[in-house]
Amino acid sequence: MNTTTADPLFDTDFMKEMLRQVRALDSYGIHDGKNAETLLAPFILNKEARAAIPIIGDPDPVTLSRVRAFYNALAVLIEKECGQMAVPLVHLSNEGFGRVLITVGKLVVLDRPLRDAHRFGFESFSKMKTEADKQLGVAIEIVGRYAEVAGL
Amino acid sequence: MNTTTADPLFDTDFMKEMLRQVRALDSYGIHDGKNAETLLAPFILNKEARAAIPIIGDPDPVTLSRVRAFYNALAVLIEKECGQMAVPLVHLSNEGFGRVLITVGKLVVLDRPLRDAHRFGFESFSKMKTEADKQLGVAIEIVGRYAEVAGL
Predict the structure, then answer these.
(1) pLDDT band at B8 (very low <50, low <70, confident <90, very high)
(2) How close A86 gets to chain B, by Cα (Å)?
(3) How many Å apart are CA A17 and CA A23, to the nearest integer?
(4) What is the CATH number of domain A8-150?
(5) How large is the ipTM?
């Protein structure tokens, strides 16, 4: 079976980690043998697809697991880059509102509000990667600047 | 109706804030007119009472609201003392396990694991106050030491 894709984007650390996160959720191996593009496809939502998802009630567990996969992957990359444990915390209160934190030691390296978590997704794979890179850059910069607090 | 108690413990900032938090949960005023001791009584659990609570499944919302009230009160006191916003985050994953964070700026001033949240409570009012004071002291100390990060 073809489990590789031609796109070099999928060879980046971030996309590989995303794939690992998604595969980790597949306890029964029902997605075995599928390629990266197919497995990560649910992360891609264009404007129309996004608008079609109702934002009533709490997001379903599958959507939530995607939000977690994304921030877990980010935390893994932060950890790799700075060599210290990065702990992600995805907290949803109600109706898709919440807060995402990643901490390294006593330092908050990422702190984002979550809104409309039902519609969590990106325009394209490259936009997902760009967003991750941006957040990773900010996190690594702040760890470098406040190394003492990150080491607590 | 007698809404005051003789115990000077209830005149402390922390106990006053706890009372405020508990009253804030009472949307329909069903506990109006009750004194502090009665309102805060559910926070006190002796060994036997604690052991009698089963730790199966997720803690009920009333128990959770007590966990939140305690850490909200702590955050309010931290805020009062250091003059900066302190944000509490009580995150329960499953079966009463979770994590409590209080952040000031980019600084984590309190980070505790939650275990058996079903049995959240203290031996006595004075033990509750002592525990809060201890955590408040640690939080204020760390804000003082890393004022720059707390100010971010």
Answers:
(1) confident
(2) 13
(3) 10
(4) 1.10.3100.20
(5) 0.83
DSSP letter assigned to residue A6: S
Identify the sign of the CA torsion B53, B59, B60, B65: positive
Q: What is the pLDDT of residues B79-129, one digit of tens each?
A: 999 999 999 999 987 777 899 999 999 999 999 999 888 999 999 999 999
B84 phi, psi to nearest 5 deg: -125, 155
The amino acid occupying position A137 is: G
* Mean pLDDT for chain A overall: 90
- Residue of chain B whose alpha carbon sits nearest to that of A91: B91
Size of interface A-B (CB pairs under 8 A): 41
Which chain A residues are closer than 8 Å to B107 by Cβ?
106-108, 149
Model confidence, pTM: 0.87
Which amino acid, one-letter code, is at A139? Answer: A
Dist CA A33 CA A80 (whole Å)? 27
Higher pLDDT, B58 or A67: A67
- Cα separations in angstroms, A102 against A85, A105, A150: 10, 10, 11
**By the 8 A CB rule, do B117 and B59 touch?**
yes
Is residue B101 classed as helix, strand or coil in its secondary structure? strand
Report yes or no: A99 at the B interface, CB cutoff 8 Å: yes
pLDDT digits (tens, 9 = 90+) for A69-80: 999 999 999 999
Task: Locate the chain B residue with the closest alpha carbon to A152.
Answer: B108
**What is the C-alpha to C-alpha distance for residues B102 and A48, in angstroms, rounded to an integer?**
38
